[in-house]
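Have a think about this chain, tokens included, and walk me through the fold.
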Amino acid sequence: MSRTPRRGPRLRKREAAGSGTETNHAAVVAIKAVHTLAWLSIESCVVYLLITGLAGRTDKRVGVAAAVVTTETLVFAGNGFRCPLTGLAKRYGAESGSVTDIYLPRWFAHNLPAIHTPLLALMAYLHVKNLRRGRATGL
């Protein structure tokens, strides 16, 4: 008769914390929720930059929003064009390890970099044009 060895409290604790052998569903949900909130705040900055750029307004708030978007872009690029939370999600047992399925349609989530690249170029163009025309306000 073969008995399964008993796991000590340390091993059970390590497995529950996400050693990669078992899924910690609560941790994965929390990581995806944090990622979703970060994504929403960054996307709100992107929308703000597009609206103000099209409206011909460049002000201090544009600078803050641009800093948020630039920081996110640099972090993403510096991590090999992979979200830094992906490794964490994988560690806690996410199926693919990816956090790009942040409660968005799969096709949209997987194409976010391709969608954002032209938007980033458009935002930069619009605000540089505003600054050159002297339409900057509140700077």
Remarks:
- DSSP finds six helices and no strands in the chain.
- The helical segments are 9-17, 25-55, 60-78, 85-91, 106-110, 112-132.
- The radius of gyration is 21 Å.
